[in-house]
Amino acid sequence: MIKQECGLSLPNCPVEFAQAVNDTLDFLSGKWKLPILSSLMEGKKRFKEIERSVPGISPRMLSKELRDLEMNKMITRTVYDTVPATVEYEITQYGLSLDKVLLAMYEWGTAHRKKIMGAGNKYKK
Questions:
Q1: Does the pLDDT at position 58 exceed 50?
Q2: Is residue 125 part of a domain?
Q3: Are residues 19 and 56 in the same domain?
Q4: Which of the 8 DSSP states describes residue 125?
Q5: What does the alpha-carbon distance between residue 34 and residue 41 come to, in Å, rounded to a whole number?
């Protein structure tokens, strides 16, 4: 399956596939980037709006993750000349390219939860 999807010759495909997956995991590591991006897929938001839409994130962690997302061209930060300054964050077209990844993760996670937590399963909470 990997050979067909990556379109590479068999000897090179596993290495390049693994590198691409590792690059993705390195970028998306941690528990906050995807929820922040998901929040911004709804539209522009200010810092406090993002903070409220991502339960459990501290202001310090949100600030760090927003800087990282901006550095990786996933979001843009716009500062408006108001008193006090207004700052809005918006997902970029490049950030929106993760929508299929997020949807696939949602679908897999939902199916996995049903399988693990399903009727008669000893792991059911």
A1: yes
A2: no
A3: no
A4: -
A5: 10
